[in-house]
Amino acid sequence: MAETAPPFAIRRWILGGLALALSGLAGAAVPDREGAPAHGGERMVAVAAEASNLIPFMAGDSASSAVGGLIHATLLRYDKNLELTAALAKRWSVSEDGKKLTFHLREGVRFPDGHPFTSEDVAFTWRTVVDPETRTPYGQQYRRVSRIETPDRHTFIAHYDEPYAPALSTWASLSILPAHLLRDENINTTDFARDPIGLGPYGLERWMAGQSLHLRANDAYYRGRPYIGRVSFRIIPDTTTQFLELEAGHIDQMSPSPTLFKRTFPKREDLRERIATYSYLGSNYTYLGFNLRRKPFTDIRVRRAIAHAIDRTELMKGVTLGLAERISAPYKPGTRWYPDDIDPYEYDPAQARRMLTEAGWKDADGDGVREKKGRELAFEIITNNDNKERQIAATLIQRRLRQVGIDITVRLVEWATFISQYINKHDFDAVILGWSLSPDPDQYSIWHSSQQKPGQFNFVGLEDPEVDRLLEEGLRVFKPRKRAEIYHELARELLEACPIVYLYAPYSLSAIDRRIRNIEPAPAGIEYNVEEWYIPEPLQRIEIQR
Q1: For an engineered disulfide with 440, which of 166, 248, 271, 275 has Cβ 3.0 to 4.6 Å away?
Q2: What angle do CA 297, 489, 495 make, to 5 degrees?
Q3: What are the coiled-coil residue ranges (predicted)?
Q4: What is the DSSP pairing of strand 371-372 with strand 375-376?
Q5: Distance between CA atoms of residues 299 and 292, nearest Å
Q6: Crossing angle (nearest 10°) for helices 300-309 and 388-402
Q7: Does residue 74 sit in helix, strand or coil?
Q8: Burial letters 20-33, b for 16+ CB under 10 A, else e
Q9: CA 450 to chain centre
Q10: Cis peptide leading into 201, omega within 30 of 0?
Q11: pTM to 2 decimals?
């Protein structure tokens, strides 16, 4: 979650309206310098936080997803247009009643240690993720499989008691684990989490705690050995330091801040010649989430008043320099899942004051902060300390809420501690975080009232029978138009319940050294074909200082 990035399963996204994903795309054309595609070289990537667990369905942070996604592989994958396509399964079929999925697996695929990949690995992975002892927030969607079959080494069949619309999407998210290495391991404590092998394009070479992670190309990768020989992730929490390292040529790739992207890169001809920049409406949004178990957030009038007191236009200008879009639903604007007729909470401090007064919060002593039954209207917002944009957002929100009589304190917490000690334990008043989403609109694990155990994603504690009903109905409907109607209604119900305040949907920003070739922006972003990127041989380097 460097986003709260349920990087693994909650990456759900658009299947329609894909053209919008390219709006704002500003990728500079890569000049055709010397060199053709070649194997070798190293791509150095700056990341803000360290991965927590390299078993993807055991982690909930984007750093783990970025690294683990290169080490492991899935039965299906999304192509550049976000259409499902073959991966470890060379083909698949869905029964007419929608209750049976049959996957025909590729033959001749092997793990890096030489052990063959078979249907037993898929079965083992499924048994592990659905095991109630497995500490994963992703198990629920796989428990919908009532039974499995492995009629031979290269066929895997999943049966469902009821049609499950997101089923194929879930199998595009489940990284397949090696049964022969993990069969006798405790998945919650296994060393494999920090020393994995998988069927993805890269394998772990070295993990230097707190400093860097280094991956090497997997010669046995089923799609062919990737061009770039090594991918290294350097942990650099501060964006300014990342930029200095990019400027000095010590790293190849970073996610620049809006200020760097919009003001620094355009003014620096030397950078423009060497660094390509990309922006596109990403698959994520930033929000202010309330702990609905705690006062004053148990009162919906307070939540709605806060929504009216926050100036989202100011946030988008001040935090993202306009590199964002306003949203009022947990879907990407312009896609079939996003309702066109939804009315956002407008910035209206007078309305916020009226709602707080109606809720019984009044400034009786004239100090500018409202009280009720001897308690001040005050709470704490926490967010991760490695995200400058969220820090600025918290400060702007603090100022606006003070103007309506709410006293806010802001606390910045190191990412791993933030997740383990506050989010997973539900020990917070309010948080600023982000959700990453996947092509499927299902958000059962985020909003359903059953998903509130420690480590699960409904950590705000929403319990809304109508939301539950819509989430459950959406799982049973396959037709896109009907599904869209359901999720439009869900979006309206969520806006009404106001468990979070949508702040903005930021553009994804990347700055990449032009020596990295074959980057082709698409509705899926830029990294959907990362194993096909290459560095021409004359531009490869291997002497990195560590």
Answers
A1: 166
A2: 25
A3: none
A4: antiparallel
A5: 9
A6: 110
A7: coil
A8: bbeebbbbeeeeee
A9: 21
A10: no
A11: 0.76
**pLDDT higher than threshold 60 for residue 27:** no
Tell me the C-alpha to C-alpha distance, in Å, between residue 375 and each of 325, 369, 399: 37, 10, 20
Question: In this predicted structure, what is the pLDDT of residue 117?
Answer: 98
Q: Is the dihedral of CA 258, 264, 270, 273 positive or negative?
A: positive
Nearest to 503 by CA among 422, 416, 356, 396: 396
What amino acid is encoded at 128 in this protein? T
d(C-alpha 472, C-alpha 489), whole Å:
13
pLDDT in tens, 293-349: 999 999 999 999 999 999 999 999 999 999 999 999 999 887 889 999 998 899 999
Long-range contact list for 396-402, CB < 8 A, 24+ apart? 396/311, 396/314, 396/315, 396/318, 396/319, 397/288, 397/310, 397/315, 397/432, 400/309, 400/310, 400/311, 400/314, 400/349, 401/306, 401/309, 401/310, 402/368
Going from the C-alpha of 323 to that of each of 260, 262, 520, the distances in angstroms are: 12, 9, 21
On the CB side of 219, CA atoms within 13 Å amount to 3
